[in-house]
Structure formats: C-alpha cells, structure tokens
Specification:
Elements (H helix, E strand, L loop, with lengths): L1 H6 L4 E2 L4 H5 L7 E7 L3 E6 L7 H4 L1 H10 L2 H8 L4 E2 L22 H10 L6 E7 L3 E2 L2 E2 H13 L4 E7 L1 H9 L5 E6 L17 H4 L9 H12 L3 H18 L2 E6 L1 E7 L2 E2 L15 E2 L1
Parallel strand pairs: 5-8, 5-9
Antiparallel strand pairs: 1-11, 2-11, 3-9, 3-10, 4-10, 6-7, 12-13
Helix pairs in contact: 4-6, 10-11
Length: 283
C-alpha cells in the first residue's frame, strides 16, 4: 500500500501505520490524514479460577493493571495515538478525561504480586497471530506485555493462534488472558456496556453480573437513560469503577491514517467504517 499510493492515481491506503503515513507528508500528489482511532487495544483477563487460578486472583489482576507501561504502547502507534483513559474511546460521550488514565506504578504492582500469595506466577496469554489493526501487530503488543509483566515477576507464556481459532476459544471464555481490541459497532457508548458484568465481552472472561451487582445495576441504568447529560455522567461513573476493578485493561487508541491521491475528494476516515466509498469523488 505504501508503494501503490505513491505510484498510482485514484488510490486510497487505509492500513498504513502513523509512522509510514508520516513519511508521505509533503508529497504534492498525496493527501495524508492521521488522528486517534475509535479502535481500542486492551487486555482481557479471565476471572474463573478453573481457567487459571493465577489470572483470577484479584491481586494479580491489580498487579497487571499497574505493571503495564502505557506510554510505550502509545509510542508503538506513533503520532496521533492516545492512551485510552477507559474502555470507552474518546470519540464518544461518557468517556473519561485524560486525567483518569491509569499510570504505571511498579512498586504497587510488585506489592500486589506479593499479596497474591502466589510464588512465581505464570499466565498463558493468547493473541491473534498475523493480525494487524491500524498498522499495529498483535504479536508486537503481546511481546511488550510479556516484557512489562516480567518486570514485576509475572511470567507470561504467549500463544499466537490464527484469527478464527483465537476467536473461537476467546468467545468460549477459555483464555486465561488475551491481547485484544474492540472496534465500535455503532457510534454510541452503549456499545461498551458489553464490558460490564454479565455483558457479551464480560462473559468471555467469565465476569458474571453476580460478581459485581452494583456495577451491573449501573450499566442497566445507563442503558435505560435518555438524557445525554445524565448518560455521560453515568458512563463516567461506570468508567472510573471499571478502571479500579474490571478484568479489562485499556491500553491505547491507535493513530489511524488515511492516505489518498491528491485528486480525490472526501477521502476521509469515519467512526464506524474506515471510508465511505460512495462519497469519494475526483477533482
């Protein structure tokens, strides 16, 4: 794509990384646009001790939350990427402010590992091999996660599976830990209630509503609320609670880039689909 968009006309490249797109800035025959994507890379961890006693341990989960080097994940994506302050992307109402983002704290993470009572904790983490989203390889993310957790004494064994195989076992709730991501299905924060207890994504880590009734009740209230002002406040409350105790760790919203031939008009990125092909024209 990097070569084709430079050589041809009527070309659009959607899968370049922000770094690749940056090399094309200033070329008179091209238009380059980068910003933060609504896609959200995250880590999921299973709450069922039958799947993994280590992963399900609350102290280990807290240790992972504070062991991750969030700024370094953001740097992988390049200019335009942002650390996700919560599980709702900054594109939608109800997202948390940047001040709410989780900050790395290795001392706290190591203390939580000791508090877990587990000697030399080991977790197997699955990721979709050979899959790249917004120019980011899941294999690269998985290696970084492994390295981060090793710093606090948690050993991570990586298993990269083909996408279909990964999704099958992930949906069945069989992964102790997953390197994952979520792309919006529709432009509203209700789409992210799947991460609250008893939701679709929560069931994939065996986080039932009964495990956190207060949070589950807030999610139902948010789903029924009509006023955007009230909804925004509810979703922020949910987001802060999720950052404290949910088995999901939001990492970053990658930079998304679209590079198009200079003769094209309306070649812009959308929130749900990358490109509205019908709107694209020529000068």
């Amino acid at each position: 794509q990097l070569l084709n968009v430079q050589r041809g006309t009527n070309e659009v490249a959607l899968d370049l990384s922000a770094q690749q797109a940056a090399t094309l800035r200033g070329k008179s025959n091209l238009k380059v646009i980068t910003n933060a994507s609504a896609n959200l890379f995250n880590i999921d961890i299973n709450t069922d001790p039958k799947i993994s006693e280590v992963a399900a341990n609350p102290h280990i989960q807290t240790a992972i939350r504070y062991a991750l080097d969030y700024p370094s994940f953001v740097k992988l994506s390049g200019p335009g990427a942002v650390q996700a302050p919560g599980m709702i992307p900054t594109t939608f109402i109800g997202h948390l402010p940047p001040s709410a983002k989780i900050k790395r704290n290795l001392q706290k993470a190591k203390a939580e590992v000791r508090a877990s009572g587990i000697s030399n904790p080991k977790i197997t983490m699955y990721y979709p091999a050979e899959l790249t989203i917004n120019g980011i390889s899941f294999a690269t993310l998985a290696q970084k996660t492994k390295s981060n957790l090793a710093e606090v004494g948690i050993q991570v064994d990586l298993v990269g599976n083909p996408v279909n195989s990964f999704l099958e076992t992930y949906a069945a709730g069989k992964h102790p830990m997953s390197q994952s991501y979520w792309g919006p299905d529709y432009p509203d924060p209700n789409d992210y209630l799947v991460f609250t207890p008893g939701g679709l994504a929560a069931n994939r880590v065996n986080w039932a509503a009964s495990k956190d009734p207060k949070l589950a009740a807030l999610a139902k209230k948010a789903q029924r609320t009509v006023s955007d002002t009230q909804r925004a406040a509810l979703f922020r409350q949910i987001g802060r609670m999720m950052n404290q105790r949910a088995p999901f760790f939001p990492l970053f919203q990658p930079a998304q880039a679209i590079v198009s031939s200079g003769n094209l008009t309306n070649a812009v990125l959308g929130v749900i689909w990358p490109l509205d092909v019908r709107a694209v024209g020529t000068r």
